[in-house]
Amino acid sequence: MPKLVEANVSVNLTKNGLLLKFLTLVKNLSIDLYPSMVLHLTDRFVSNRLLYLEIDACYNIRSSLLLSLLKDLPKLRALKIYNTYPKSSVEAQPCLASELSSVPECLSFHLETLQWIDYSGTRGEKEVAVYILKNARCLKTATISLRSMAIENDLMIKELKSMAKASTSCQLITEF
């Protein structure tokens, strides 16, 4: 069988469970992540090969599920989070990252690049950002692009810059 290196997935995985088997073989994955898909992924999706993950976190996916997914990706080096759909005015539930039993291996040993597009500073987003920055010991670059319509961009930039970072060489870049 030929090697599958990269996959762009925009399907409902709850109806395509066989696809999960093949996704564990890829090194680069771009996926539109709907809330109904996350539970299926976190139960069955473990990939020791995945190095680059691009997630479109559709409709404010609960942040704890994103962190739970990271536990299943021990070699992940680059993470890109974005949202192509407008954020709901209802704030997503906080993830309570402190409840995680252990830091995902990718954060402790491998993650070098974080790119977050359309960051709007919700409580759940802040909690994930704090958790990743605080635990990603190899992080070289964290680029956070603020949602262009956000009124409180200056405050968000101050909050982001004040977050503790596990990696002393991490360069935090904020963009509009």
Automatic annotation (TrEMBL):
SMART domains: FBD. Residues 105-175 form the FBD domain. InterPro entries: FBD, FBL13/AtMIF1-like. PANTHER family: F-BOX/RNI SUPERFAMILY PROTEIN-RELATED, FBD DOMAIN-CONTAINING PROTEIN. This is FBD domain-containing protein. The lineage of its organism: Eukaryota, Viridiplantae, Streptophyta, Embryophyta, Tracheophyta.
